[in-house]
Structures are given as C-alpha cells and as structure tokens.
Amino acid sequence: MHARVIAVKIFLLSLWLPLSLLPPAVAQAPVIIGKDHWLFYRPEIIQPADEAAINTSLDLVQRFNKILSANGTALAYAVIPIKMRIYADFLPDEVRLTPYMAANYERATKVLKTKGVNVVDVNTAMMKSPIRTSISPIFLKGDTHWSQLGGMVVAEAIKDEILLNPVLKKAYDATPEEKYTMEFRKKLYTLKGGDLRNGLPADHPKHPPEQTLLFDIKQAKKAATGLLDDTAVPEVVLVGSSYSQEWTLFSQALKFALQRDVLAFAVTADKSPWVGLLETYVASDSFQKQPPKLLIWETPERELAAPPNYTYREQRYKSDNTEWLLRVSAWVQRACKASAVSTTIAKLGLAGKAQSLADDAIAVAATAEADFVEVRLSQPITKQHYVSARLTTDGSKLVSVEASGPGVATRRFTLTVVGDELEYNFKMPLPSLGAGYTMFRLFPGQTDKFSIKQLAVCEQPSDLLL
After folding, report:
1. Per residue in 360-372, pLDDT tens?
2. 151 FRET partner, CA 20 to 30 A, in 82, 175, 396, 425?
3. What is the pLDDT of residue 223?
4. Shared-domain flag, residues 178 and 317
5. Could you read off the pLDDT of 314-360 as tens digits, one per residue?
C-alpha cells in the first residue's frame, strides 16, 4: 500500500473518522500543509453548496434551545470557528479563505441569535485575543484542536456572554459558586504528537516539535458541612466535541472562568455533536435525574455542515433530522403530558411468565433474546407522541422496539440502556411514514431481571414541528 494512503488512514483513525465515510475529495488529502509548519484540516472548507445543510443544523439548534428553555434549562451555544479563518495568513498560496468561508461564522450566529439562541461569539474572541499571535497560539500548529490556552480564551468568552446575557446570567446566578485558582506551569510542554502531524505523507520532512503553555486549576478546600454537599451534582454542564476532551483542559478552564463546578461530557468525531448530545448526555441518568440550570454546548463550525442525516457519517450514528428532534425533545421533557392514547400489555410473550402484570407494568425474573412484551395502543401513535416508562434491564445493554399497524410498514427501533439492576427512564418516539402504529413489541434482550413501570404515551410540545 502506498505510504501516503497509510499515513492518511492513520490520521483518520486518530480523528475517529472512517476513510470510507469521508467525501471522496477529502479522503484523498485531508491534511493541508501551510506556511511556517502550520497544518490545516481540509473538511473545514465550507462552500455555498453546504448552506442548505448548515441551515438545517441551525434550525435544529434553535428548536432544541426552545425545548430546553421550556423545561427550565438555559443553553449557551458556543460554535468553535474553523482554524483556517483564525490563522488564514498561514494557509498555503493555493488554498485561500473564500469570502463565503470568511462570512459563514457571522451569518450562522446571526441566524441563531435572531431565533433566540444564546450564542457565544468565539470567533471574535479568538481574533482579538493577544494569545493568537503568542508563542503558545490559540490552535495547535500540528493538530485540529485548540491549545490549552486557546481553550482558556473560549472559556473567558463564554463567561463574558453569560454575564452580559440576562437569560444566561439568571441561570448562572442560580448555581452555587465555587472557588478555583489557576497557576501556570514554569516550563513549556513539548507535545508528543498531533492528529494533523500524524496525517502527513511519509516522505514529508519531519514536523518540528511543538510546545504549549499548560496550567493547573485547583479547587479551594471547603469546610465539611454534610454528606449532601459532598455529593452535589454540578448544575453547569458542558457537552462538547473532542475539543472538550480532558487533555485540552477546557473543562478545567471553564471551572476557573465561571468559578463554578462543571460536569463535562466530550464525544469523538465519529458520533457527531448530535448523537453526542442526545445519547451521551440528554438521555443519560445524569440529565434525567437532575437537568442542569445551565448547559454549555460546544460544537465545531465545520459540524454545522453535517446535520444528523449527513451522508458520510457512519450508519449507526446517522439519523433522520426530524426524528433526531423528536428523540431529543422526548428526553428533555421533565414530565409526561398525558395523551389520548392508552396502553395495554397483551397477555402473550413475557406476560405469560410475569411475576406481576398490569396495563402499564410488567415484571419478570429473567428474559432471553427472543422474549418480548407486546403493547397495544388504543389509537394510532403519531409524531406528536412518544412512549415513556421506567425500565429495568439487568444484563442487557440494548433494547429493541418493533412497531407495526394496519397498512403501515413495520419498523424496528433500538436504544442503548445501562443494563444494571436499577430503574431508568425510557423514552422513545415511534414515527412512521403512514397513519401511525397501533402496537409495538419491546425486546429487552437477555436479562437476569426485567421490568416496565409507568408505561404511557405522552404528548410532544404542540409547536415542536411547526
């Protein structure tokens, strides 16, 4: 195999993006070699042809923001600008920042602000920061990610927006203050690699070592006041991309900038911000038990051109755009708004060996792969509904739902579950392409204990899809 192809595959592996799932032109040469050892990531190139996809993403973000707000959580949306714009001077002569790329950030954030989204203008903060031209710049030369100091610039920008924005300030003031201190390390740290450096052709001159300035964030000791204080869940949450991984120190920088404890979730590029937000956090027990007062959602600008149904995304992380919205809306709802659709657990399948059984509940000692619970609905379920329950699936990590009805194509839905002996929320829309499903079978998989409680069909917000 050609050395360049090997190098590209290694690079893509480091980014968690399979080669087969990138657009053909990108897969040929994902690394752009710039001036003064600066390297850039070709997928950052945004074109007018991407505008429809970007607009779809912006629409989903504003709808998600509206859902969160209606359920008591304020959203601070931080779009991370492309490295090519922040360091356009170092692009090679044959690759220039087009007028469309130059204006995309301002256009996108203006659209979001017009629709009521609390947007953090990270682009302006980066361009104006003295760190941009320092010995430890905002972005790493040999990596797609920001430096640790770059993350601090973003954390300060988020703080500034929170303090100036009445909606965010109100949520912020309602969270407990913590005391954090910061201390810079005395020596620059020499990086051992970089995802873009790993993607250079094998015959390319060795990329020089890169140094960056690191810091340590420490929490001041608190006097012990009780067990509840020691186990309090942070009410400020960060959900981000690989830019928010632990090594970037971004979540630590946020703690210092906000003087608040921050619960952080970061997802890899293969999952995308959409799946990351939904499956990693909103559908998690952490959110379901205690939604945050303030949610910070960090998303790279290039991801705006890749909504949930993005063609080149791995199939298991791909979703119909409307169905993504239906799912995330269901999980965000703090209470089930009762619908006119009632449920009845049919007396077949697992009901035949149930320890207890009711129209909205069933409990069994154990289940096998082929076992199922059949639920019949009093009338067709539509996109305006979702199924809600409390589920225990001790042993199984995946639950499948097979929905059917007269004149409607049968469809199978899947949901990742914790699979321990505890109860968790289960929320699942069952959208069809026809008149709606009138029954579904739930397959819990192989478990040592399985139960459903509080089974119901709930209403989505009436204006969700308008």
Report:
1. 999 999 999 999 9
2. 175
3. 60
4. yes
5. 998 999 999 999 999 999 999 999 999 999 999 999 999 999 999 99
299 contacts 241 by C-beta, under 8 angstroms: yes
**Is residue 338 domain-resident?**
no
Pure H helices in 182-320: 227-230, 250-258, 272-275, 285-289
Q: If we measure between CA atoms, which residue out of 384, 276, 308 comes closest to residue 56?
A: 308
Residues 6+ apart with CB under 8 A from 96: 88
pLDDT at 382: 95
pLDDT at 11 over 50: no
What confidence tier does 8 reach under pLDDT thresholds 50, 70, 90?
A: very low
Contact status, residue 238 vs residue 286, Cβ threshold 8 Å: no
Residue 240 is predicted with a pLDDT of 95
Give the separation between CA 77 and CA 121, rounded to whole angstroms.
Answer: 9
pLDDT digits (tens, 9 = 90+) for 93-148: 999 999 999 999 999 999 999 999 999 999 999 999 999 999 899 999 999 999 99
Measure the CA–CA gap between 129 and 137, rounded to whole angstroms.
10
Residue 451 near residue 440, CB atoms below 8 Å: no
Domain end point (choices 286, 301, 332)? 332
Q: What is the CATH number of the domain that holds 402?
A: 2.60.120.260
Q: Of 283, 304, 332, which closes a domain?
A: 332
Quote the pLDDT of residue 141: 96
pLDDT band at 50 (very low <50, low <70, confident <90, very high): very high
> 166-173 vs 148-164: helix axis angle to the nearest 10?
100
Asked whether the beta carbons of 338 and 456 are under 8 A apart, the reply is yes
* Residue numbers of the domain that contains 87: 3-223+231-332
Q: 49 pLDDT exceeds 80?
A: yes
pTM: 0.91
The secondary element (H helix, E strand) that includes residue 15 is helix 3-15
Are the C-beta atoms of residues 415 and 444 closer than 8 Å to each other?
A: no
As to burial, measured by CB atoms within 10 angstroms (0-12 exposed, 13-18 middle, 19+ buried), residue 351 is: middle
| Amino acid 224: pLDDT | 59
Q: What is the dihedral of CA 309, 310, 311, 314, to 10 degrees?
A: -90
Which residues is 86 bridged to in the sheet?
Answer: none
One domain for residues 42 and 157:
yes
Tokens representing 78 are 């931080």
Tell me how far the alpha carbon of residue 310 is from its chain's centroid: 15
Residue with tokens 């995330």: 328
Strand order in the sheet with 356-358: 356-358, 361-364, 449-459, 385-394, 424-428
Residue 308 region by backbone torsions, left for phi larger than 0, else alpha for psi between -120 and 50, else beta: alpha
